[in-house]
Design a protein that fits this description.
Oligomer: heterodimer
Number of strands of chain B: 20
Strand content of chain A: 35-45%
Radius of gyration of chain B: 24 Å
Distance between the termini of chain A: 26 Å
Helix content of chain A: 25-40%
Radius of gyration of chain A: 19 Å
Distance between the termini of chain B: 70 Å
Largest sheet of chain A: 5 strands, antiparallel
Structural class of chain A: alpha+beta
Structural class of chain B: alpha/beta
Number of helices of chain B: 21
Chain lengths: 162, 564
């Protein structure tokens, strides 16, 4: 089962490689991983998506907690949460395809953020299913480039993680 | 007054009460060696290979409970130290390893003797640091010693670029330290303690299984009190030997792959298992699916990630073994609940029946020296009081089985990583920490050759070790597996080109003895142990194809032992 884990870690050189190294050393898989400093510059917030049985995910959380650089972590999957991903996508767009792409972008509440005579660059945010759905809808169009941010997650409600 | 980074490092070591540093100089650490040279509080022990430095610091740490300290240069100095760091990591030994690094402006330039020490050691340390500013040295050392020695202990590496050791700043060592991301829990949860004790007292066929955690937490006294009061059978892992006296009748000896018949059978048939400071290692459990099939399990461990990692447990208690055991003792004194004496009596009848198998019997009348015989003779002559280190293989298992350790921190061996070459340098660290004690290194002709250069270190510092070389001309344990599982195809396990160990020892300035007949074992040991101011290397020519029994073959359950 998919788990989305939020981690607060010291914003130190090497902290990211400790997390990544732990996954490769113990044979866990990382589906996506995003990390950036928070409003407190000494901390980084990481969102990590992984898959595994309950036992494996429990081990993953314990092992992550054991890293000296990890301040706090929560498995968001246990509660309700909001998930978002950003995708930038460059497609070949000429003639009547330009209109079709424009329509699709509107349906998905995305934006065209760069234009040339032969291409569009699109920006879409949403949960991963929505991003996947747009990609699916674009299969008849020539995709030149795709960049996905990986998932970000935050728990619903007023309670704060840090 | 301002001090250089190198001087600050020495001041940090003094502040931590460090009396010995094991190391080897080189370009990147020359400033630090210069600072060492100018003082005499911190004594530096010059090894002959950086692996030896880490094992010596490790032996020092295991025998004292204090952090061992290592100082090596950048590049090959650091990579040579990695095996010793990994050895300490696997057995949770507190150690601080200072590695020199090329000057900061050169980092990343493939400079001479540059290696990414922090990157290379990351998977085998509890934590590591790269110091980028002279002002960080003092707090980094404070953190390093704190992390290495608290919680589940482990090695910590501090990588220091050469220019940082020359830069100057004011020195003050932090009195205390708060790390928001590191706060190990010592006391067990009181509710869990009560639940655990209820279960333990309700047992019909109880079993206590303890590991290295008892020794690491200095929880031996608490363990003895607890087990003594309950009168339950206890078995100890390779790493745990000595926490509970082997000579106590409640002790069933070691368990696991080469554990005793009675210990393994009792594990298999128990209904309540109390695991203390042990991590259900594969060498202990055998096939996990067949492990303790009828038992409810209580597990005490300071590392939450050790709990339910290999075996699902019913009542976990996270905490320091010493603390949790004293909580349990306290609770036990208060409780009204009674033991099921008659069930316990029947259980002991069953255990004594298993014990009567005498699974450690061997041919005492052999015309060729049996390794087991040497170890029993050694136990006698040292009255079981020596500090004993070992290398890895058959001799290590024989020592665990036949030397009967009654005290903690006396049995020093590489359990988790299984590092050949560990024994001799580890013994040096033990002897330096305990100059007036008898220190013995049990080894074999293969293992000893992996760090034999340290014989020179022993000479330089006058370390009167007694080296017991059980020489069977084979990598014994490899050969045993090839005999059992590869139809005796002894691929590369035969040791040819064995040196004349007596002449070799003598060439280093030590005493060398060779023993080939069983009747000469006792006299040779007497002679060796009468020499208290010199290292004695005793080369025992033993039976070539001896096997370690009992043995649980890979994939077997603990009740499926091969007996002699």
């Amino acid at each position: 089962m998919k788990h989305i884990i939020s981690i607060l870690l010291e914003n130190e050189a090497g902290a990211l490689s400790r997390v990544a190294g732990l996954f490769s050393a113990r044979g866990y898989n990382i589906e996506s991983l995003t990390v950036a400093p928070t409003d407190d510059a000494s901390l980084s917030r990481m969102t990590l998506v992984t898959r595994g049985t309950e036992d494996i995910v429990e081990q993953i959380c314990k092992q992550l907690n054991k890293l000296v650089d990890v301040v706090k972590l929560v498995d968001l999957t246990g509660d309700t949460y909001v998930e978002r991903e950003l995708m930038l996508i460059k497609v070949h767009a000429e003639d009547q395809v330009r209109d079709e792409v424009k329509r699709l972008v509107d349906i998905f509440h995305g934006q065209i953020i760069d234009v040339t005579d032969t291409s569009y660059t699109l920006e879409v945010t949403g949960d991963s299913e929505k991003i996947d759905a747009l990609l699916q809808a674009l299969t008849k169009i020539t995709i030149l480039e795709v960049v996905r941010s990986g998932r970000l997650g935050i728990a619903r409600g007023e309670k704060a993680f840090c | 007054m301002e001090l250089t980074g190198a001087e600050i490092i020495i001041e940090c070591l003094k502040a931590e009460g460090i009396d010995h540093v094991f190391g080897y100089p080189g370009g990147a650490v020359l400033h630090i060696y210069d600072a060492l040279y100018k003082q005499d509080e911190v004594k530096h022990i010059l090894v002959r290979h950086e692996q030896g430095a880490t094992h010596a610091a490790d032996g020092y740490a295991r025998s004292t409970g204090k952090a061992g300290v290592v100082l090596v240069t950048s590049g090959p100095g650091a990579t040579n130290a990695v095996t010793g760091i990994a050895t300490a990591y696997m057995d949770s030994i507190p150690m601080v390893v200072i590695t020199g690094q090329v000057p900061k402006p050169l980092i990343g330039n493939d400079a001479f003797q540059e290696v990414d020490s922090v990157g290379i050691t990351r998977p085998v340390v509890k934590h590591n640091f790269l110091i980028k500013d002279v002002r960080q040295i003092a707090t980094t050392f404070k953190k390093a010693f704190h992390v290495a020695t608290t919680g589940r202990p482990g090695p910590v590496v501090i990588d220091i670029p050469k220019d940082i050791t020359a830069a100057k700043t004011r020195f003050s060592y932090p009195a205390n330290l708060k790390m928001r991301s590191y706060c190990p829990v010592n006391n067990g949860h009181s509710g869990q303690i009560k639940r655990a004790l209820d279960l333990i007292l309700s047992a019909q066929r109880p079993m206590i299984y303890t590991g290295g955690g008892v020794i690491l937490s200095n929880g031996s006294d608490e363990l003895r009190r607890f087990v003594g009061k309950l009168g339950y059978p206890i078995t100890q892992t390779l790493m745990g030997l000595g926490a509970f006296p082997a000579s106590n009748p409640l002790s069933l000896g070691m368990l696991g792959m080469h554990g005793t018949y009675e210990a393994n059978m009792a594990m298999h048939h128990c209904d309540v298992l109390l695991a203390i400071g042990a991590r259900f290692d594969d060498r202990v459990t055998g096939d996990i699916k067949k492990f303790c099939p009828t038992a409810k399990i209580v597990h005490i461990d300071i590392d939450p990630s050790s709990i339910s990692k290999n075996v699902k447990v019913d009542i976990p208690i996270v905490g320091d073994v010493k603390h949790v055991l004293s909580q349990l003792n306290h609770q036990l004194a208060k409780t009204q609940k009674q033991l099921d004496e008659s069930a316990l009596k029947n259980w002991w009848v069953q255990i004594e029946e298993w014990r009567s198998q005498d699974c450690l019997k061997y041919d005492r009348d052999s015309a060729i020296i049996k390794p087991q015989f040497v170890l029993e003779a050694l136990h006698k002559i040292t009255e079981g009081n020596a500090f004993v280190t070992s290398d890895v293989g058959q001799h290590q298992m024989f020592t665990a089985q036949y030397y009967g350790f009654d005290e903690p921190r006396r049995w020093i061996n590489s359990g988790g990583l299984g590092t050949m070459g560990f024994g001799l340098p580890a013994a040096m660290g033990v002897q330096l920490a305990h100059p007036d004690e008898t220190v013995v290194c049990i080894t074999g002709e293969s293992s000893i050759q992996m760090c034999i250069q340290e014989l020179a270190t022993c000479k330089q510092y006058g370390l009167p070790l007694k080296i017991i070389n059980l020489n069977n001309g084979y990598m014994g344990m490899v050969r045993q597996w090839q005999e059992f599982f590869y139809e005796k195809r002894y691929a590369m396990s035969t040791m040819d080109g064995i040196p004349d160990f007596v002449a070799l020892a003598e060439s280093y300035g030590h005493v060398g003895l060779r023993v080939v007949k069983p009747e000469d074992v006792q006299p040779a040991l007497e002679k060796a142990f009468a020499i208290t101011d010199q290292l004695v290397f005793i080369d025992f020519i033993t039976t070539q194809e001896e096997n370690v029994y009992p043995m649980v073959p890979a994939g077997g359950g603990l009740n499926e032992m091969i007996l002699v």
